[in-house]
């Protein structure tokens, strides 16, 4: 059976290694973190993903999956290292470069090299291939280079790795075919072959599509406030059109995909990517928009007590990376007039630098609750309990997710701020 070397054992590389090992491949997982390697060799994992601990334990016990800090010779190499952005919003492909350099001494003619990390357009042709050419390989003949982006949803990774349609972009048509055949061994969905740059752009455009559409919804929320319209009603009615699907406004866009990937396009085609850049700017402006509404709501209070509900960038997860809620909390903390309490049942104290409160501590005597994440706990908030604990029963729901009784509480939604009145003691 073929041998696969997977470089980078995070949310993508580890499940990928486990799935290939379960399919019978001999898999070596490589990571720069000794901790990750030691754990994996004991059959344990360092990330949370449904169903993964059991599979890893099994394949490690069977000797199908091993881990090391050093690559070894193999038939197929898969790179799944991080690709964040620098402070100046340019892509950081340093991890991809160092992973490519790390596998280079172990490559042989006929090997397949796949990058799964999300990368800027032309990275396979302009960054990865030249490194391997410097090592003496003819990258059109000796090796098969391909980009196969990942589009799994955390929490469903093991299902989606197998069932999702995969796009495999080769630096040559033969490279696309060879790499696609690797995935055909584990994927039940379609495996579509294309060029590397097309695969790179498809992945980026999937996330950009969503970012741009969220920006449109956010712009609608702002316009609605000016014009005195309920944006949520507008969206509901417009979406009755068979070919319209307006997204939902919110406090901004976070996470390490939607808030990052569009910049990879902006960097490479700054002149042309105007809408993409503007959408990023609109989404980045939402934390300021939210805090402005909080200031307006509390303008007439001497010491406003505000409870923030939710810190994660989306509901029912524990991930706060690039979360707009963090920015909102920081802006409110900077403005010294607030007595601010923050509550998120999914976030641990060590994940953030300000104190977290329990539900009761947060709402007790609060003038205002600001909902920033659509956790199930917030969707089912009890109106009576909330109203009885708060000093003034006012809620600003930026996710339009609560189902509160508006007889008992005043509820403002991000797309429905036309009747906003300053809270009175
Ligand atoms: N997590 C997701 O849901 C998701 C979805 C689609 C695409 N992606 C993309 O997949 C890529 C990987 O993301 P992730 O979430 O798995 O990242 P991660 O941070 O969970 O894991 C990356 C791992 O790579 C290791 N690493 C870094 N440099 C290395 C090197 N030079 N050699 C070996 N190991 C190295 C790190 O120690 C870490 O364990 C990124 O480009 C990301 O944008 C992620």
TrEMBL record:
Kindly state a single biological-process term from the GO annotations of this entry. polysaccharide biosynthetic process
Q: Which InterPro entries match?
A: 6-PGluconate_DH-like_C_sf, NAD(P)-bd_dom_sf, UDP-Glc/GDP-Man, UDP-Glc/GDP-Man_DH_C, UDP-Glc/GDP-Man_DH_C_sf, UDP-Glc/GDP-Man_DH_dimer, UDP-Glc/GDP-Man_DH_N, UDP_ManNAc/GlcNAc_DH
Organism's domain of life? Bacteria
SUPFAM superfamilies noted in UniProt:
6-phosphogluconate dehydrogenase C-terminal domain-like, NAD(P)-binding Rossmann-fold domains, UDP-glucose/GDP-mannose dehydrogenase C-terminal domain
Q: Which residues form the UDP-glucose/GDP-mannose dehydrogenase C-terminal domain?
A: 307-404
Annotated family: Belongs to the UDP-glucose/GDP-mannose dehydrogenase family.
Query: Any idea what this protein is called?
Result: Nucleotide sugar dehydrogenase
Q: Which organism is it from?
A: Bacillus mesophilum
């Amino acid at each position: 059976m073929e041998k696969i070397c997977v470089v980078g054992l995070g949310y993508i590389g580890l499940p990928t290694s486990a799935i290939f090992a379960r399919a019978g491949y001999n898999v070596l997982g490589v990571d720069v973190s000794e901790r990750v390697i030691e754990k994996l060799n004991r059959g344990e994992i360092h990330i949370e993903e449904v169903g993964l601990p059991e599979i890893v334990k099994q394949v490690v016990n069977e000797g199908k999956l091993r881990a090391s800090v050093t690559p070894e010779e193999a038939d197929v190499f898969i790179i799944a290292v991080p690709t964040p952005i620098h402070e100046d919003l340019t892509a950081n492909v340093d991890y991809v470069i160092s992973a490519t350099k790390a596998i280079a001494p172990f490559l042989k003619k006929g090997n397949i090299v796949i990058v799964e990390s999300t990368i800027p357009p032309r990275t396979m042709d302009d960054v990865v291939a030249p490194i391997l050419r410097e090592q003496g390989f003819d990258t059109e003949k000796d090796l098969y280079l391909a980009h196969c982006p990942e589009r799994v949803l955390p929490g469903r990774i093991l299902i989606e790795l197998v069932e999702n349609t995969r796009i495999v972009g080769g630096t040559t048509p033969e490279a696309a075919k060879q790499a696609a055949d690797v995935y055909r061994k584990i994927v039940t969905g379609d495996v579509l072959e294309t060029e590397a740059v097309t695969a790179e752009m498809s992945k980026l455009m999937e996330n950009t599509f969503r970012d741009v559409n969220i920006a449109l919804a956010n712009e609608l929320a702002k316009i609605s406030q000016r014009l005195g319209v309920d944006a949520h009603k507008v969206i509901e009615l417009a979406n009755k059109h068979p070919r319209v699907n307006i997204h939902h406004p919110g406090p901004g866009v976070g996470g390490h995909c939607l808030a990052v990937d569009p910049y990879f396009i902006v960097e490479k085609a700054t002149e042309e990517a105007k809408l993409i850049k503007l959408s990023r700017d609109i989404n980045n402006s939402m934390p300021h928009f939210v805090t402005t509404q909080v200031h307006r709501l509390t303008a007439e209070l001497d010491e406003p007590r505000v409870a923030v509900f939710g810190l994660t960038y989306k509901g029912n997860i524990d991930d706060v990376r690039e979360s707009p809620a963090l920015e909102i909390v920081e802006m409110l903390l900077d403005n010294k007039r607030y007595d601010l309490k923050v509550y998120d049942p999914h976030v641990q104290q060590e994940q953030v630098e300000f104190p977290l409160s329990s539900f009761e501590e947060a709402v007790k005597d609060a003038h205002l609750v600001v909902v920033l994440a659509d956790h199930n706990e917030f969707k089912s908030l009890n109106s009576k309990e909330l109203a009885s604990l708060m000093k003034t029963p006012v809620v600003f729901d930026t996710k339009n997710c609560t189902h509160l009784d508006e007889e008992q509480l005043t509820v403002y939604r991000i797309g429905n701020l036309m009747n906003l009145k300053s809270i009175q003691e």
